[in-house]
Amino acid sequence: MNSTRCAACKHLRRRCPSTCIFSPYFPSNNPRRFQYVHKIYGASNVGKILKDLPENYRAEAANSLYYEAYCRIKDPVYGCVGIITILHQQIHNVQCQLAGIQAEIAALSTQSQNEDNQYQQTLIAPTLIQQNGVPNYTSYYDIPTWFD
Amino acid sequence: MAGGSSPCASCKLLRRRCARDCIFAPYFPPDDPHKFAIVHKVFGASNVSKMLQELPLHQRADAVSSLVYEANARMRDPVYGCVGAISYLQNQVSQLQMQLAVAQAEILCMEMQQQDQHHHQPPPVMLPPPPPISSFQDDQKSNNFLLGNFNNLQHYLNYTVANSSSSSHVMQDPLKRESLWT
């Protein structure tokens, strides 16, 4: 028997054996942790969940049970599901913003390319104009690179 | 049994009489026994009953739905339950926010680059004088362009549009070109 009972055994007012399933995860210095978990899940169910897991996973399981119990006590209707819903909404909002910005980037890139193309097309060397007035653009690319 | 009908899923599982005012009956119909079974396994019938009793009637259906969701998550992932999903989604939010910040920085850069291009004055360009062409001889504005005065490019464009018979390569809308140089 532990000299100091764990928070679970203190709450349940029972002897705390050395093999107590709760004692590693519900220390006596944090009674609220077990109270929340017990209120939502019940000591028996928590004990079953922990016993069904390998020992190296029990600490994480106890933490997640405490977190879910805490969320359920803070929000008795939705609990953790309320947080999940909010996160889904946040993801949707950020995805919409990102799509908008990416569309703007694409539009700016296209506009910039069009302006470059149009600018290049206006640089017609007058020497190419033939006497019959019909422009000949075959030497367009001879224009000096200052225009780039 | 409520009103002579079959007992609800919870009372069937708990093997008890389903009272008329059974707190579970509206939310755990007999045709879906798995729903109550999983909630009972994770939370326990007694705890679920206490939780529902503490809620007003109009919120109980949502509470049951969320409890079923959490119970299912815990059955799928006995270590993390719903918390695993929360962790995953928070990670997604962070990544998306980073992508958004990068995209916003990129668009800011592009806008600044465009502003720089609009305000940039290119150096004067010296082009060889044109051979004598009758259609240009009397046009002083095109000569200005040849001397590299880009402020008169607008006039040059107007002239070429007006005088070129096959001007497919020439800017058809000089107003758009003007915005580059103003």
Commentary on this structure:
- The complex is a heterodimer of chains A (148) and B (182).
- With 148 residues, chain A is mainly alpha-helical.
- Chain A is 59% helix and 0% strand.
- Chain A has five helices and no strands.
- The termini of chain A are far apart.
- By secondary structure, chain B is mostly helical.
- Chain B has eight helices and no strands.
- Chain B has helices at residues 9-14, 33-42, 45-53, 57-76, 82-119, 140-146, 153-163, 174-181.
- In chain B, helix 2 (33-42) crosses helix 4 (57-76), helix 6 packs across helix 7 (153-163) and helix 7 runs antiparallel to helix 8.
- Chains A and B meet through helix 3, helix 4 and helix 5 of A and helix 3, helix 4, helix 5, helix 7 and helix 8 of B.
Specify the structural class of chain B.
Answer: mainly alpha
Q: Summarize model confidence as the mean pLDDT of chain B.
A: 75
Radius of gyration of chain A: 36 Å
What's the order of the H and E elements of chain B?
Answer: HHHHHHHH
Structural class of chain A: mainly alpha
- The DSSP helix count of chain B reads 8
Q: Write down how many β-strands of chain B occur, each being a DSSP E stretch of 2 or more residues.
A: 0
The total count of strands of chain A amounts to 0
Helix content of chain B: 55-70%
Shape of chain A: rod-shaped
Which stretches of chain B are poorly predicted, pLDDT < 50 over at least 5 residues?
A: 134-182
Radius of gyration of chain B: 39 Å
- Percent range for β-strand residues of chain A: under 5%
Major β-sheet annotation of chain B: none
- DSSP strand (E) fraction of chain B? under 5%
* Uncertain stretches of 5 or more adjacent residues of chain A: 128-148
Task: Characterize the quaternary organization of these chains.
Answer: heterodimer
**Backbone shape of chain B:** rod-shaped
Protein name (chain A): LOB domain-containing protein
Domain LOB (chain A): 4-105
Pfam families (chain A): LOB
Organism (chain A): Penstemon davidsonii
